[in-house]
Design a protein that fits this description.
By secondary structure, this protein is an alpha/beta fold. It has 2 domains: about 110 residues, Rossmann fold (3-Layer(aba) Sandwich), CATH 3.40.50.720; about 180 residues, NAD(P)-binding Rossmann-like Domain (Rossmann fold), CATH 3.40.50. Helices cover about 35% and strands about 15% of the residues. The strands form 2 sheets. It has a 7-stranded parallel β-sheet. Strands 2-1-3-4-5 form a 5-stranded parallel β-sheet. Helix 5 packs across helix 7 and helix 8 packs parallel to helix 9. The longest helix has 19 residues. It is elongated. The two termini are about 25 Å apart. Bound molecules: NADP nicotinamide-adenine-dinucleotide phosphate (NAP). The site of NADP nicotinamide-adenine-dinucleotide phosphate has 28 residues, from helix 7.
């Protein structure tokens, strides 16, 4: 009987590896655990988890022999880690291996909004260019003052890339970091927003950062400002963001993550000044393969009674 349950939309190669290495039982979602026969639930020792549905104590209790939840992804805000710890369940994630992809995407989104890619692409595709329709001028990206909210692993990669674009780097974290000379630390998100032209959000999701990007932060960014979010939808007060984009309190937003995703608030989608992406931060063949390998290494370690490579608890 399978000791490992695999939940989520794995690639064919990851699904095959989970089957080969652990004889894993694929389930479509957490809700399907309750439908398993009791002897099968009792046999389960680990869950290979990919997804954003809340994984709480009640679900863990359906698997009384559970020893590990190996998350596919660095953000584990969907998993109730305190509930897992209280039950002696190890939680792991897949940090570092996705930094480059997510940072690349953040910078691409930032440039796309500065240079008004969507309007320009429409102009070319529609034949408007050929008909002589002129575009309004966009904005220069290089050299802008950019704030990184959350200078963690991904935030640092974003800031390093922006330095290559001759940007003035500002950041907010809970404590000052060891950075190249000239980067400016701000303890408060509003102070950060006030000091910069654009803001890139790279802080963790979860209850502690809920609504961190508030109406006040957006107002401080100002009417020329662009906000890019690659962290979690919960970090931005989405009502305030919609209001700010509608009124012109900020110029534009580029969002890879949303509250209630994969559904996107229709008011956001109706706005011409957002660039929406369907949470593709780490979605490359190379990075997803590395994330899968790390997830399986963590599973293997815990099932063998060893410490995992990248523990959360
Ligand atoms: P990380 O290294 O842990 O950095 C997280 C940042 O969040 C740090 O700057 C940290 O602040 C800050 N932070 C943590 N807890 C906080 C709190 N309670 N209050 C205020 N700030 C807090 O994480 P990472 O690897 O860079 O990943 C960051 C996030 O990106 C993930 O959690 C995930 O949600 C998101 N992500 C998204 C995608 C995507 O596909 N779009 C892909 C990967 C990751 P300090 O600097 O003060 O420690």
């Amino acid at each position: 009987m399978s000791k490992v349950i695999a939940i989520g939309p794995y690639s064919d190669s990851d699904a095959a590896a989970l089957k080969r290495d652990f004889d894993a039982l694929r389930l479509p979602g957490l809700a399907a655990i309750a439908d398993l026969p009791e002897d099968q639930r009792r046999a389960v020792r680990a869950v290979a988890f990919m997804g954003h549905d809340p994984f709480g104590g009640a679900t863990m209790d359906l698997l009384p022999g559970l020893k590990a939840i190996a998350n596919f992804g660095v953000g584990y805000d969907a998993i109730d880690v305190a509930a897992a710890t209280a039950r002696g369940i190890r939680v792991t994630n897949t940090p570092e291996v996705l930094n480059d992809d997510v940072a690349d995407l953040a910078v691409a989104m930032w440039i796309a909004q500065a240079r008004d890619f969507e309007i320009a692409i429409r102009n070319a595709r529609s034949g408007d260019w050929g008909r002589g329709v002129r575009l309004p001028l966009a904005r220069k990206a290089s050299g802008r003052r950019v704030g990184v909210l959350g200078l963690g692993r991904i935030g640092r990669e974003i800031a390093d890339r922006l330095a290559g674009f001759k940007c003035e780097i500002h950041y907010q974290s809970r404590s000052r970091k060891d950075t190249p000379a000239g980067w400016t630390y701000h303890a408060d998100p509003v102070d950060l927003a006030r000091a910069v032209d654009d803001l890139i959000v790279a802080v963790v999701g979860g209850p502690e950062t809920e609504g961190f990007v508030s109406a006040e932060v957006l107002a401080a960014l100002g009417p020329d400002g662009v906000i890019v979010n690659i962290s979690r939808g919960s970090v931005i007060d989405e009502e305030a963001l919609i209001g700010a984009l509608q009124s012109g309190a900020i110029r534009a937003a580029a969002l890879d993550v949303f509250r209630g995703e994969p559904q996107i608030d229709p008011r956001l989608l109706a706005l011409p000044n957002i660039l929406p992406l369907p949470h593709i931060g780490s979605a490359t063949v190379e990075t997803r393969a590395a994330m899968g390998a790390l997830q399986r290494a963590n599973l293997r370690a815990i099932l063998a009674g060893q410490d995992p490579e990248t523990p959360v608890n």
